[in-house]
Prior knowledge:
The structure is a homodimer. By secondary structure, the first copy, chain A, is an all-alpha fold. The first copy, chain A, starts with a helix and ends with a helix. In chain A, 50% of the residues are buried. In chain A, helix 1 (4-35) packs antiparallel against helix 2 (39-70), helix 1 (4-35) packs parallel to helix 3 and helix 5 (144-169) runs antiparallel to helix 6 (176-209). Chain A is built from 7 helices and no strands. The A-B interface holds A 53, 63-64, 67-68, 71, 73-74, 77-78, 81, 84-85, 88, 91-92, 95, 98-99, 102-103, 105-106, 165, 168-169, 173, 177-178, 180-181, 184-185, 188, 217, 219-220, 223-226, 228-229, 232 and B 53, 63-64, 67-68, 71, 73-74, 77-78, 81, 84-85, 88, 91-92, 95, 98-99, 102-103, 105-106, 165, 168-169, 173, 177-178, 180-181, 184-185, 188, 217, 219-220, 223-226, 228-229, 232.
Amino acid sequence: MRDAYHEELDSIGDGLVEMARLVGSAIGRATTAMLDADLHLAESVIAADEKVDDLQRELETKAITLLARQQPVATDLRIVVTSLRMSADLERSGDLAQHVAKVARLRYPESAVPRDLQATILEMGQLAQRLMAKAREVIITKDVDLALQLEQDDDAMDLLHRTLFQHLMDDRWKHGIETAVDVTLLGRYYERFADHAVSVARRVVYLVTGDYADEVDPAAGADAESARSKNA
Amino acid sequence: MRDAYHEELDSIGDGLVEMARLVGSAIGRATTAMLDADLHLAESVIAADEKVDDLQRELETKAITLLARQQPVATDLRIVVTSLRMSADLERSGDLAQHVAKVARLRYPESAVPRDLQATILEMGQLAQRLMAKAREVIITKDVDLALQLEQDDDAMDLLHRTLFQHLMDDRWKHGIETAVDVTLLGRYYERFADHAVSVARRVVYLVTGDYADEVDPAAGADAESARSKNA
C-alpha cells in the first residue's frame, strides 16, 4: 500500500510527465501552424502555454510542501530537488514552442518559412517533438539507455541547425532580411527546445546513477555559434 | 553568534552574490570584446564561464546538503529552494555572455556589429551589466523597491531590442545576411540575459513578500516576437 508520502512524490512525477506531454504536443502543433500558416492553430498553441505554467506552479508548491512536511533525505530529497529543475526545463520548453507559434502568427497569412527551408524546419520540429516524447518516456521508465539516446538525437538537431545556417549564408539567399531573422530565431528556438529535453533526460540519469550524464553543460553543446563556426 | 546552520545558509547567499558579480562582469567584457574585435578578451570571457558553472555546482551541493542535514522549514526552506532557482538563472546568464563572446571570436578580426549599430549594442551591453549589478544588490539588500526598478530597466531593454529590429528591417540595410544573423542572435542574447536578471530580482521579492512580483512569466514579457510585432 502506498502511503501519503509516496503518493505526493508520485504526484510530482505525474506532473512532470503531463508537462512533457503538453510541451511535446505544443512544439509539434507550433511547427504545423508555421508551415501551414494556420493562425487558429498558432493562437491555440499560444493560449495553451498557460496550462504548462499552471502545472509548473502546482508542482513547485507540491514539492515545497513535501520538503517542509516530510523532510525527505537521500534519494527522495534528490528526486524532489531534481523535479524542480526538470519542471523549469519543461516550462521553458513550453515558452519556446509558444515563441515558434508567435512567429507563425506574426507572419500570417504568409508562412514564415520559405519553401526551400520547409523540409528542414519540419525535420527540426519533428525531432524536437520526438526528443520530448523520449524525455517523457525517460521520466516514466528511468531508462538510462534511452536517456543516452537523446544525446545522439541532439547531435542530429545540431546538424539540422547547421543546414539552416548554410542556407542562410548561401550567396543565393533570396528571401530577404526579415525571413533571415525569422529563420535565425526559429533555429535557435528548436535548438534550445532540444537542449531542455536533453537536460531533462540527463537529470533522470543523475537521479538513477548519481553521475551527470555528461560533465559538460547541456546548454553549451550545440549553441548557434558552434553550429555556425563549423560552417565557417 | 552565528551557528553552523546559518553559516551554511549565508554561504549559499555569498555564492549567489559572487555568481552575479562574475556574470555581470562577463557580459560587460563580452560586449567590449565584440565592439573592439578583441580576440584575447573574447577568449578570456569564454574560458571564465567555467568558474560560474563550478560555483553553481558547489552551491547546489551545499543547498542539497543543507536540506538533508538541517531540514529547514518555512522561510529558510523557501530561501534554499529559491537560491537553487536563482543559481540556475545566473548560470544561464553566464552562458549568454559566453555566447556574445563567441560571436566576437567567430567574426574576428572584424567586429560582428556594423558601425551604425554599435551604439545600440553598447547600450544593450551596458544595460545588461547594470541590470545584473542591481540584481546582485537586490540579493544582498533584499530591497524590494530596487527589485521593482529592474522591471523598468527591462522595458528599456525591450525598447533597445525593438530599435535593433527596426535597423534590421529597414530597406536600407546594407550589411548582408551574415551580419543580420549575428545581430538577431546578439539581440536575443542580451534580452534573455536581462530576463534572467529580472527573474533573480523577482525571486527575491517572492522571498521577502511571499508574492510573485508579477504573475506574468518573467520570460514571456519581452520576447523577440513581441519586440518585432510592435514594429510590424
